[in-house]
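Observation: inputs received (chain + coenzyme A).
Thought: call the complex predictor directly.
Action: predict_structure
Action Input:
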Amino acid sequence: MISTHPRIVRYVANLEKLGIPETTTWLTELELSELSFWKDATRRRQWLAGRWVAKRLVTRSSQIDMLREVEILSRGEDGLGKSPTVSIRGDTSSYRLSISHNNRSILVGITSCHAAIGVDVASGVPETPSFRTRWFSQQETKWIESDIASRLPLAWALKESIFKAFGNGSKWDPRSIELVKVNQNRVQSRIRGIEVEPLSMWIRTTKGGVATAVWNDTAIQEVSLCS
Ligand SMILES: CC(C)(COP(=O)(O)OP(=O)(O)OC[C@H]1O[C@@H](n2cnc3c(N)ncnc32)[C@H](O)[C@@H]1OP(=O)(O)O)[C@@H](O)C(=O)NCCC(=O)NCCS
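Observation:
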């Protein structure tokens, strides 16, 4: 099958409007087991909304009828969060997926053919100088301080998006992701000092913050190799 949707980014401002069914028949046993990890009602709603949006994107782009045939798991055996994996009818798929939630908003990014993608919704990022000193390099701080209101949440969301796309199971450490240059649609970065190829970037201003997605363009170039 040749995918006609190499990359999709879907932002939902209010997850209550998604119309997620009360029943959980659209979830697999393993997904229900992951859901049971969360006790807080808000976090459970966010988890469900992320799955609902992501499963619908996958089923639509791969012509599958039932949401239950798509399985999305995001917890490792150690119980810690990990980059979500997507299986279809029990087989690991080539989809790469990233999910973020913030209050009532949900952001989901998906690519086919293993191309990396990471998304984040950031709001309420502390504007104190000590926060910037702790988590940003001098070069990043200089860039942020020329327009703190818009660049601080953007820098934070980009770091998290890049981590989600390329973290490869490492521990989240904002300083390990370094923003080198942010242009209109592209971000150059380093991870633990190693240069990452320039990434494409999607940005949307949200209430009190920003939503971002980054991906490598391999998705577009390799689309004809999907099978
Ligand atoms: C990635 C992380 C910083 C995001 O936290 P956040 O800003 O509070 O939450 P967001 O809503 O933006 O993102 C949460 C989503 O990120 C995804 N996620 C979690 N861990 C991830 C990771 N390591 N890489 C990529 N995506 C991850 C999950 O899909 C999760 O949503 P879900 O639980 O509903 O499936 C946090 O989940 C984290 O620290 N995870 C790593 C855990 C860890 O340290 N693992 C490695 C141990 S060595």
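Thought: report the result.
Final Answer: Confidence is low (pLDDT under 50) at residues 1-5, 219-227. The longest strand covers residues 194-206.
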